[in-house]
Write a structure and sequence with these properties.
Blueprint lengths: L55 H6 L70 H4 L5 H8 L33 E7 H4 L11 E9 L15 E2 L17 H8 L5 E4 H8 L9 E7 L2 E5 L29 H18 L8 E2 L16 E11 L2 E9 L1 E5 L2 E12 L2 H4 L3 H4 L4 H11 L1 H13 L4 E11 L2 E13 L1 H7 L4 H16 L4 E7 L5 E7 L22 H22 L1 H11 L1
Helix pairs in contact: 5-15, 6-11, 6-13, 11-12, 14-15
Length: 589
């Protein structure tokens, strides 16, 4: 037998076979077989199937289906077939390059907006477990993930125009994990929410240091129509001293007044850990039978997050005035100045047992009192924490302690709520929006107020004069809340807060002597405990001015100056003495 190749005619007019009904050179050519063009998304398993029976009965059963020699959708693979397993739905290695859905009519009764369409194919959020409130959000389940990843359009409620969402910044760990570190524990937040522990209330006040000024009641009458410009207090110094650099803590450790030592900022970060989204870290030092919870120099715990728990991601670039880094510095600057502006300017202070332990003689310091309070966690386990209160108020002959904090509005487009329009008529809606976008920050403020024994927490609403002007701000309103009532309102359970602290203390007390660090995972709702070398974090922080591109506001120089003074009065002085006094005190403890 032989195979004879017929003559192939030359096409002088273009590419492909000559456009003739039936070339005479192909004797066995089948007539009336149309040429079937194919798409790049079609699977080519065989060139053509000439064994299919093209009879009229199949066309009568399905008049809309046109059979073709290139159509393999009806193949029934069998062991005796020519090519078993070539059906498109049974080939696991086959993938379409073009995965675009087929076009559909945009008008008519069949088109409906479905926010959850193709939800299973979309990238999931970091927590992988959206809450019911997120599912019921009118913008779509899971915070409108479809609009971010090519799904259906994002529909905003209340008739607001659609705005494309910005891509979220890549989450980074608050501390660089070194290869020589050893991970000891990994604790998911789901276990934190189930913990509960009760402590005696009120705790014992061991010592109160510092001085407080009185709160100015006229700020309770401030409203958006009668706003007050935020002033700058450049001459007053603020101190963010960690636990082991506190001379009072060293003294109490020498006197064996407690086993565990911390500050209210560190404890509140632990207590409200399940609400956190950004990464943070806490240094733990086990010295003898003592346990010290510290923060690193330049830690994120010294700044205030903005829109941490919001569904709207912030810009990633630090040059943007609305980036997370720029807003955190701006929020810290606003919070410090607000806490000093709402005080009575009569130069009188309420003094306590000892002066400010971090200030040098003659130095002007902010209005703050440090209450060293002791809680009993177990029969032979006591915890001492340095807690802050910011002002005092005389009410019918009774002295009340206040904490002063400020929420800041940077651009109403991100939240959809304009404070200047809604604060007077819909204050509840404004607070609800802030509870959604800043759940962790408000919870930590409430926890710190309860730890410090404050009778009232004053929350100010501070907004930019113009959304693109991050230098000038105005106080729009000041609202007071009782800490325990506000905690119940935001679903912050004190028993759960102390349950988290008790479990972490018990876990760390089982560790050997050394240094450890608790790190919140930047992408998952969990914390990890690492064992680190004894000299970790000792010399990794150098006080120097920020580059010009990172200076997002003029007061940054003043902040650097104040932080430098702070370092000179507290952190830096303690670091110089670290090789002698601090280690000696801790070793004696």
């Amino acid at each position: 037998m032989g195979f004879e190749v017929g003559a192939v005619p030359f096409n002088q007019e273009g590419w492909g076979p000559v456009d003739t009904p039936s070339p005479p050179s192909l004797a066995n050519h089948l007539s009336h077989v149309p040429f079937a063009p194919f798409s790049r998304s079609d699977k080519l398993g065989r060139i053509a199937d000439w064994t299919r029976n093209y009879n009229a009965s199949a066309s009568r059963k399905d008049p809309h289906h046109h059979h073709s020699v290139f159509d393999f959708a009806l193949d029934d693979p069998s062991p005796g077939g020519l090519s078993p397993g070539l059906a498109a739905d049974e080939d696991p290695s086959f993938r379409l390059v073009d995965g675009k859905p087929p076009p559909r009519p945009r008008f008519g009764p069949k088109w409906r907006f479905n926010p959850n369409q193709n939800r299973s194919n979309l990238p999931q959020r970091r927590d992988d477990n959206p809450s019911q409130s997120d599912k019921d959000h009118p913008r779509g389940g899971g915070g409108g993930a479809g609009s971010r990843f090519g799904g259906p359009p994002d529909r905003r409620p209340f008739g607001r125009p659609y705005q494309p969402r910005r891509e979220a910044a890549v989450s980074k760990s608050s501390v660089d994990i070194q290869p020589e570190w050893t991970m000891l524990e990994q604790i998911p937040f789901s276990t934190f929410t189930k913990l509960s522990y009760s402590v005696a209330d009120p705790p014992e006040d061991l010592l109160v240091c510092g001085g407080l000024e009185s709160y100015d009641r006229t700020y309770d009458r401030v409203n958006p129509k009668n706003e007050r410009r935020l002033e700058r207090f450049k001459s007053r110094n603020f101190f963010k001293v960690t636990t082991t650099d506190d001379p009072v803590v060293r003294r109490l450790a020498n006197e064996d007044r407690a086993t565990v030592f911390a500050t209210d900022a560190i404890l509140s970060a632990l207590m409200c850990a399940p609400r956190s989204a950004y990464s943070w870290d806490i240094v733990v030092q086990r010295v003898g039978n003592k346990l010290f919870f510290d923060k690193r120099d330049g830690s994120q715990l010294d700044l205030l997050s903005v829109n941490e728990t919001s569904q709207e991601p912030l810009p990633e670039s630090k040059d943007d005035i609305n980036s997370a880094h720029s807003l955190s510095i701006e929020a810290a600057y606003i919070n410090q100045n607000f806490s000093q502006q709402v005080l009575v300017r009569d130069r009188t202070k309420v003094t306590f047992d000892e002066p400010n332990p971090f200030a040098s003689e003659g130095e002007e310091v902010a209005s703050v009192a440090y209450r060293y309070r002791r809680w009993k966690l177990d029969d032979d386990l006591y915890l001492v924490s340095r807690c802050e209160v910011h002002a005092v108020l005389d009410n019918k002959g009774q002295r009340s302690f206040l904490t002063l904090n400020a929420l800041n509005e940077f651009d109403p487009k991100y939240t959809g709520v304009d404070w200047r329009q809604k604060l007077e008529t819909q204050r509840g809606a404004v607070l609800a929006t802030e509870l959604k976008n800043n759940a962790n920050k408000l919870a930590k403020w409430t926890a710190q107020a309860m730890l410090g024994g404050a009778d009232m927490m004053k929350i100010g609403y501070v907004s930019r004069v113009h959304p693109r002007d991050h230098f000038n701000h105005a106080i729009l309103s000041v609202v007071g809340y009782k800490p325990r009532e506000f905690a119940a309102q935001i679903n912050l359970n004190p028993a759960n807060m102390w349950g988290i602290v008790k479990s972490m203390v018990d876990l760390c007390m089982k560790l050997n002597e050394g240094k450890y660090v608790i790190v919140k995972d930047p992408a998952k709702p969990q914390v990890r405990i690492y064992e680190v070398p004894p000299d970790a974090f000792e010399n990794d922080y150098v006080e120097e001015p920020l580059p010009e591109e990172e200076q997002v506001q003029p007061p940054s120089e003043d902040q650097n100056d104040s932080s430098a003074k702070e370092g000179g009065a507290g952190d830096s002085a303690a670091a110089v003495e670290e090789g002698g006094e601090k280690k000696e005190v801790m070793s004696e403890a």
